[in-house]
Amino acid sequence: MLADRVVALRETALYVPRSVRHLTTNIRLRTVGPDGLRLTANFALCQTMADQPSELFLCGRYHDRVMEDGGSLRFAERICVYDSTIVPDLTRLPRIGL
Questions:
Q1: Backbone phi and psi for residue 76, each to the nearest 5 degrees, phi listed first
Q2: Contact 26/63 with Cβ under 8 angstroms?
Q3: Closest of 70, 68, 5 to residue 35, by C-alpha
Q4: In this structure, is the dihedral angle defined by the CA atoms of residues 46, 86, 66 and 36, taken in order, positive or negative?
Q5: CA of 86: how far to CAs of 44, 60, 93, 96, in Å?
Q6: Which tens digit of pLDDT belongs to each residue from 63-90?
Q7: Sheet harboring 18-33: ordered strands across?
């Protein structure tokens, strides 16, 4: 099935150029512990096509765990909780030609 999806994306799918914005807001530090920093943040994913108005595509909340690694902070875990039970197809397509 994966091979069929790749063929469809490369040969038959029509891709309309678009601008995609991924906004992350209200980042909050919830706890600090031996397993790292626990953070939450809201997110919104919007798309705009040249001849159409912008549309909100997906929104929700991140639950992150960040750990210190050699003097840098790195994501150890990210759980994404969507506000909607429907995930649009665009969020699974590669960014072709952008």
A1: -100, -25
A2: no
A3: 68
A4: positive
A5: 14, 12, 15, 23
A6: 999 999 999 999 999 999 999 887 766 5
A7: 18-33, 36-49, 55-69, 72-82
Among 52, 61, 53, 50, which Cα is nearest to 84's?
A: 61
CB atoms within 10 A of CB 45: 17
Confidence band of 98 (pLDDT split at 50, 70, 90): very low
User: For the whole model, what pTM was predicted?
Assistant: 0.70
Phi, psi of 14 (to 5 degrees): -90, 125
The tokens for 66 are: 């960040």
DSSP per position, 37-62: EEEEEEEEEEEEETTS--EEEEEEEE
